[in-house]
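=== RUN LOG ===
request id: a7f3
mode: sequence -> structure
chains: 1
length: 257
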Amino acid sequence: MSLKGKTALVTGSTSGIGMGIAHSLALQGANIVLNGFGDVDGAKAHIAATGAPVDYHGADMSKPAEIEAMMAFAAQRFGGVDILVNNAGIQHVANVEDFPVGRWDAIIAINLSSAFHTQRLALPGMRQRNWGRIVNIASAHGLVASAGKSAYVAAKHGIVGLTKATALETATTGITCNAICPGWVLTPLVQKQIDARAAAGNISLDQARTDLLGEKQPSLQFTTPEQLGELTLFLCSAAADNVRGVAWAVDGGWTAQ
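=== RESULT ===
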């Protein structure tokens, strides 16, 4: 599979899931536009090592004007966005009655509204070229809920709904829109949770890891960013031309329970 000549924009891609997906796309020759607040130089170097052209835009995904500037930058730099991966996200845990209003607004803006803005700006060019791939990174929480995560769950359920609506609107075109719904993925942020759990319970890292997974994920295995990258590649392939509006669970059996 070659994506040479295609341009992929991956939000929230300076580390973790977004970086894994960007790297997989780069290995197939796509031009990459990175975005995020992590180690920008390190992320760019990691992608550049594949030989793929890469650039970066630091849009704050809570601000529509900055998203518009990022999409214009991608068009100017590489001619438009062919593959759009909406991955940017934040989290906050609190019961509904205690949930800070500002945190609710930020989570909805970054985890949900940003995907609407990138899609509305990418779709005209995709329609003109009659080819495009939109991959929205939802979550197992786009399919089921957990207590204390009302904003995140609401946003991720919204992403699944947005995905389905967009898929229907583009059903007769060469554009597809699908969602990936990961469970626990071993990213630097999750590793911090494992470290904290081990320290708090005075248990080994292996035990903390097993305990964390055992609460939700029957496989007792983490999904990797690389696996999500490979699934994204499939969704970009001709084999997935008729995969439309799917919420694809990669959750070790979490939502099968």
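=== NOTES ===
The two ends are 35 Å apart (CA to CA).
Residues 7-183+224-249 form a domain with the Rossmann fold fold (CATH 3.40.50.720).
=== END ===
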